[in-house]
What we know:
By secondary structure, this protein is an alpha/beta fold. About 45% of the residues lie in helices and about 15% in strands.
Amino acid sequence: MKRIIEKELLEWKNSFDRLPLVIRGARQVGKSFIIENFGKTNFSTFVTINFEFEPEYKGCFEVLDPIEIIKNIEVISGKRIIPGKCLLFVDEIQECPKAFIALRYFKEKMPTLHVIAAGSLLELSINREEFRMPVGRVAFMYMYPLNFNEFLMACDENIILDYLENITLKKGVDNVIHEKALRLFREYIFVGGLPSVLNIYFKTKSYLEAQKRQSELNMAYKLDFGKYSHKTDIKYLEKVYERLGVMISKPIKYSQISKDYQSRDLKRAINLLEEAKIITKVNQNNAAGLPIKSGDKERYKLLFLDVGLYLRLLNFNHEDLLLTKDLSLINEGTISEQVVGQELLSYQNLHNEPFLYYWDREKRNSSAEVDYLYQYRQLILPIEVKSGTTGRLKSIRLYMEEKGISLGIRISQNNLSLNDKILSIPFYLISQLDRLISEASMT
């Protein structure tokens, strides 16, 4: 499966001032596979260390000198590691904190060697005391489940992908292609973007087999809770995970998760799941100006890792999804809001810490909520995930009036259009947001 991150990895490889690279992301998003494929394709030699399966390599990092480390790795692996020609991949690095610390010295003493590290639960390990962050000596890159564009490539739908990447407001989307793109997007919603689910789906062409794998992954994430137990009680993690199906895309109220547990314990469990990248917080923001983060408030909503797994949490059947004409009506619109948020995350700069925001106007007799805020150049634009009539755009109109913004965005299954300062983007064109906003701004 071709991934967008491959282009970023190639740019990193050819960068003059390259740093050792750490790939961050949840389990099962395909980190190890994509790095191995990248190494075998772009280097004369590819050497992998997996601390989980090969703990003997831990002894190589009892010293921090990269020259001594590489000598020891060569002896154990039986492979020559030549800087400039070899990629050294350190997998499951969370199992060896000293290896993480040693990364900074590769930049200082062996800058021409290409080094990439990754780990299943690295996000949790980084916050442990024995992990000293090598600030300024390591680069980070974030990886997510496959987005819709990557899904189209995996489906060998490159012709329609090329068509969509060249769509303009003036040209529009032909209705026949619009309907096909929506069908493909519904298919993507059901199977999601986790590689192992997609592999099974493409081999069997069976939604039921894909569902089985999704159920297995949901169980695997729950079994991982034992590895988090040094920070919080497993029962709080299990309770939060159990309630995720009814919590996604709604402002969090701890009493709705459980009335039997203290809010501080549930909050700690949510924070751990966020660190593991199983969920992402969508923070409330007053959109006071740039930088957008300066407008953060304490309230937040949650986004799940993958829309396909989210459907399994809801025990949703594929027949119901494929027969439903209006995606925004499913589960009160949370599925469409989930998949839009997931898409917006995946198209962000992969070198930046992921972030999503929403706007909530809390005024008596005049409340309003905008699903997402989107930064385009110097503007913070409102996004509503809708499918209905203009009357449903009350919140976006209030935001535009209050903030003095001349453009609002509706993401839905409606065709591409610009009408009365509202840019209507179909679900399948989220990757083209910047280009279409630019065109709408000049109209």
